[in-house]
Design a protein that fits this description.
The protein is mainly beta and 111 residues long. Helix content is 0%, strand content 51%. Strands 2, 4, 5, 6, 9, 10 and 11 form a seven-stranded mixed beta sheet that branches. Strands 1-3-8-7 form a four-stranded antiparallel beta sheet, with no helix packed on it.
Length: 111
């Protein structure tokens, strides 16, 4: 089982940037497809971006061109660079891999 710990959330103004990190335990990280998800108040959790073990990426339409997912297998870490943030990006962001979830990190974008 993989343990995941997110960090990097916070309060940012409209148009600002944040970089989220997700640190994973264990030796299998480099083989795992990883994903970022988010859940806004009163809404279902939704996919934001995924990255395969070979670095292929996929994004939700709502974040294409603004967010970038990446990974550093040497550090067992996956990142989510978020630019041009909007109030509708406000949510708790979760990291997922090997059917495990992190505790989430809050991102709040003020208008």
């Amino acid at each position: 089982q993989v343990q995941l710990v997110e960090s990097g959330g916070g309060l940012v103004q409209f148009g600002g940037s944040l970089r989220l990190s997700c640190a994973a335990s264990g030796d299998i990280f480099k083989w795992l497809p990883m994903g970022w998800y988010r859940q806004a108040p009163g809404k279902q959790r939704e996919l934001v971006a995924t990255i395969t073990s070979t670095g292929r990426t996929n994004y939700a339409d709502s974040v294409k061109g603004r967010f970038t997912i990446s990974r550093d297998n040497g550090k067992n870490t996956v990142y989510l660079q978020m630019n041009s943030l909007k109030p509708e990006d406000t949510a708790v962001y979760y990291c997922n891999g090997a059917d495990s979830w992190g505790q989430g990190t809050q991102v709040t974008v003020s208008s």
